[in-house]
Design a protein that fits this description.
heterodimer, A: alpha/beta, TIM Barrel, two-stranded antiparallel ribbon, 10 strands, 12% strand, globular, B: alpha/beta, Rossmann fold, five-stranded parallel sheet, 5 strands, elongated
Chain lengths: 341, 213
């Protein structure tokens, strides 16, 4: 059974040869290959090569055509600051003044900013490894695009002071995500994960999520499925337990749960949904392989018999992580396959 | 004018209603209520109530930010620029360290510290460790707080305590917080405490943070 078959079976609640393991290796792929992050994030061919090398090195079940949380805002007109070793940050926001929304066009993913490079990475990954391995793209969720267009503080104050205007910006952001996601599907990703850290209950109350974000996520996921996405994967980091019950309404097929959410909470909130998580990301930097293996086996035990589980980190595995810790997580999943033989 | 007006002010602050908060505070000032009472029985009580609410219903940035904004506006109204009362609890120096430009958490901490009675010196974002230490020395800091959203910041955080010691400030406690730093232990970060929220930082300072100045 190859990675794609393993994940497909797991999603459908059918038996697989072992639990899939998806290391959320994004910028770490550059670090592992000795490439500057600043290069990796701007060159789709380099990104694809590093992802493939990391896949071969670690042997997990998915690769990512994913850059950072500034791709969409840069394409919309924000100016970024790049460095060799860190993710870029926004130097000036495209929508510093919310009244400028009318002047903002939805970026054309084939022509704007780094979007074409990400699409190039998607095409290369699909061609090179996509026959047997899940190729995952990425779009930011509407709320995160909005906070990246305006700055978090300005966006949240606007949400309170002018909710209607804020809603219009969210609608724009939803279209940005839809166009970018569709282009990624056309380029060959099996699915684009929707990454929405600003929608975390650490940032907004659950009632705000339900009112502002949920209907837009549902619209985004409905469109993505219609375009051929293999599954709707939602990734909201942090203490997301209070909003997990809304996920089925949004159409979520795979729900990421981060380390502040326990496996017990996640299973109780989403009994029929495939879950992925939740080893503490920093432990890939700070812990040792024995510690990672313990955590991985604890999770595998907790999901034994349930299925619909992908062993993973709670969020991104930091670029500076120790490779032997990622190997330990992958080995833990693989060892359970040997147990079944 | 007394308890009822104070209750209205507290309610408006917790809801983050700036206009209503300033109006209620203005009414009390006009009626001769002492400014100190507005702070201690109004603003500080409101922040305590918000803290309880956030503990029960999850801490989230949005509610803290809008309430904090209302508190700061009332403070500016009660004490027009430059006339804020001297802090009785001492000075806290805060920063987001070099390499991290996410300063929202730090800004919230500033609001919570100010409303908790501390004087705050904000070194801003992307702040080198030596600037933080020099500022702590100049300002006779009672504590230093560092906030971080990215894990690559951790090696810098580990250096803060030693740099303070090198400047003769070994007894100044270091408080860490923020999404990335919260994943680590105080020992691994070489700090005195890692706080889950800005409220926790203020509580730690109020209770165990090196005693009273």
């Amino acid at each position: 059974m190859n990675s794609l078959g393993r994940i497909t079976a797991t999603l459908q609640g059918k038996p697989a040869d072992r639990t899939p393991v998806i290391a959320q290796v994004f910028g770490h792929a550059a670090t592992a290959c000795g490439v500057d992050l600043g290069v990796y994030l701007r060159d789709g061919a380099v990104l694809a090569r590093c992802q493939i090398e990391a896949l071969h090195r670690y042997g997990y079940d998915a690769v990512f055509a994913l850059m950072d949380t500034s791709v969409e805002t840069e394409a919309a007109g924000s100016v970024l600051k790049y460095t060799a070793r860190d993710y870029p940050t926004v130097r000036s926001y495209a929508l510093a003044n919310p009244d400028d929304l009318d002047q903002l066009a939805v970026p054309d993913p084939l022509r704007t900013g780094r979007m074409p490079e990400l699409l190039k990475a998607a095409r290369l990954l699909r061609k090179e490894v996509g026959g047997g391995t899940l190729v995952v793209g990425c779009v930011l969720g509407p709320l995160t695009i909005t906070t990246q267009l305006m700055g978090m503080q300005n966006a949240l104050y606007l949400a309170v002071d002018e909710p209607d205007r804020f809603g219009e910006i969210l609608d724009y952001a939803t279209e940005v995500a839809r166009e970018f996601g569709n282009a990624q599907l056309d380029a060959g990703v099996h699915l684009p994960v929707v990454f929405d850290p600003s929608a975390s209950p650490a940032v907004i109350p659950p009632s705000f999520f339900r009112e502002f974000e949920l209907p837009r996520l549902k619209s985004l996921f409905d469109g993505s499925k219609a375009r051929g996405s293999a599954a709707n994967w939602l990734h909201i980091a942090g203490p997301a337990a209070p909003i997990l019950p809304f996920y089925p309404e949004a159409g979520v097929d795979i729900a990421n749960f981060d380390y502040p959410v326990s496996a017990v909470e996640a299973k109780a909130a989403l009994p029929a949904t495939c879950l992925d998580g939740n080893i503490t990301p920093l432990s890939f930097v700070e812990a040792d392989p024995a510690g990672i293996a313990r955590e991985a086996h604890r999770l595998l035990d907790q999901f034994a018999g349930r299925g619909r589980f992908i062993l993973s980190s709670g969020c991104e595995i930091p670029p500076e992580s120790r490779p032997e810790n990622i190997e330990a997580m992958v080995r833990a999943a693989q060892s359970r396959a040997q147990d079944r033989e | 004018m007394g308890t009822h007006s104070m209750d209205l002010l507290i309610e408006a602050l917790v809801e983050g209603d700036r206009a209503r908060s300033v109006t209620e505070a203005g009414r009390m000032i006009a009626a001769g209520v002492a400014r100190e009472r507005i702070v201690t029985e109004g603003l500080e009580v409101a922040m305590k109530r918000l803290e309880s609410k956030c503990t029960l219903e999850q801490f989230n940035l949005l509610e803290i930010m809008v309430a904090g904004r209302a508190v700061m506006e009332v403070m500016s109204h009660v004490y027009p620029e430059g006339s804020w009362p001297a802090s009785t609890k001492g000075t806290v120096v805060i920063a987001t360290l070099e390499g991290d430009v996410h300063d929202l958490g730090k800004n919230i901490l500033r609001m919570i510290l100010v409303s908790g009675g501390y004087r705050v010196v904000d070194c801003g974002k992307d702040c080198p460790v030596h600037v933080l230490v020099e500022t702590a020395k100049q300002e006779d800091a009672r504590a230093v707080c560092v906030s971080g959203l990215i894990t690559s910041l951790i090696p810098l955080v580990r250096r803060v305590k030693g740099s303070l010691r090198g400047a003769g400030l070994g007894d100044v406690p270091v408080i860490a917080g923020g999404a990335a730093l919260k994943m680590a232990s105080a020992a691994s970060l070489n700090v005195d405490v890692v706080c889950d929220s800005a409220f926790d930082a203020v509580n730690w300072l109020d209770t165990t943070g090196g005693g009273q100045v």
